Amino acid sequence: MPEPWANVSDSIYLDYINQQLKSCNHSGESYISYPVSYGEINFYLEKIERDNNNILCKENIANIKTDLRNKFIQTREVIYGIQSGTNDTFFQTKRHRYLKADNYYFSISDINSNFAYKLKFITLDKSNKNYFDGSYLSYKHKNHIFTVGRIDRWWSPSDSYSLILSNSARPSPGVEYKNYRPIEPQVNFLKFLGPINYEFFVNKLEKEREIPNTLLFGNRVTFNPLDSFKFSLLRLAQFGGQNRPRDGRTILNMLIGRDNNSSKLSISEEPGNQLAGFDFLYNPGKSRNLKIYGQMIGEDEAGYFPSKKMSLYGFSYSFDDLNPTKLSIDYIDTFNGDKNSSYNHYLYRSGLRYYEIPIGASIDADSEALKLTINKKY
Question: How many helices (H) and strands (E) does the chain have?
Fold first, then answer.
């Protein structure tokens, strides 16, 4: 569809691209968060092409680029659809998000010069509720993208879980600033970090919560020091809302992590609730069939480092054959050592949730899961 990025639900399409790169003796790029901009996808295709002199490889990459242009920068697209509902969101993955109720939807999207938009209208069956999830207006200036709307995000190297930001909850409205193509540091002592991607957003949560209209700040910076290794530093912070401070000093305290009463702040001065941590993805071996990944998120801060940690570990292996099979095992633990502490806060008592659905891991707080997944392409 004509959009400037591959959405969470487009991850299957990126797997297809990677399959086409087998002729380059390369299994393609592993993405650690979504959406993935067209510029980022093209950046890594160009890199693979530069490092490979195989004629068939270059032809396949040229075909992939043509297919990408047709997919992302084609003429206006209009879609009508129907989706069945499900009451079980515990096994929500980074693929398409399901709602609890049966629904009908209409979407129209287009790219025109440096502007892109998508209008998606969802009507729940047997209900008067209407949603605009997935709708946005985006503007690109040089290597910068500015977006207003409701964007589905997935911050995790795992296909099954994310401790900090997943698509189990509906996307909340907000503004976003991110890069279009990865940035390559030009300063010598920073070059070891490799290509860098960054993202910042501020969203507004619902009125029907303990503190109405709480604001949600998120930032993520991803580094690619080796072709086979990526890692990210990431953070979410709840602040503001009805009867809570939102002045410059409050925002500064939130940004530097000075956001709890151990920082000698009174309750009225505390900026809010914060989660921070890191994740990584490692592809040992040139073929990249094996992926080892993990994520660790802290609920509080101690000495400027996350404490009360939650963890996620996993690996996946893709078997080389005509119809590839992918085996994945994920282990996740959202208990941080204190009962009823994960995703919760004594001020923001509705927690890290949107309309009572977890923004982070779909299994919610104080839970543990081990998941085996086998995907077979026919």
Answer: 4, 21
Exposure string (b/e) for 64-85, b if CB count within 10 Å is 16 or more?
A: beeebeebbeeeeeeeeeebee
Per residue in 17-38, pLDDT tens?
887 887 787 767 889 999 999 9
Residue written as token pair 């979504």: 34
Q: What is the Cα–Cα distance from 199 to 369, expressed in whole angstroms?
A: 29
Question: CA 205 to CA 350: how far, in whole Å?
Answer: 11
β-bridge mates for residue 107, sequence order: 79, 120
Closest listed residue to residue 272, CA positions, set 202, 371, 355: 202
* One-letter identity of residue 359: I
**What distance in Å separates the CA atoms of residue 375 and residue 122, rounded to the nearest whole number?**
29
Evaluated on CA atoms 156, 161, 163, 168, the torsion sign reads positive
User: Percent of the chain, pLDDT > 90?
Assistant: 51
Strand partners, 322: none
**What does the alpha-carbon distance between residue 173 and residue 119 come to, in Å, rounded to a whole number?**
13
In the block, tokens 């002592």 appear at 189
Distance (Å, rounded) from C-alpha 348 to C-alpha 345? 5
What is the overall mean pLDDT for the chain?
87
Q: Which tokens is 264 given?
A: 């000698």
| pLDDT tens-digit series, residues 208-222 | 999 999 999 999 999
Tokens encoding 57: 């490889």
- Beta bridge partners, 118, equal 109, 136
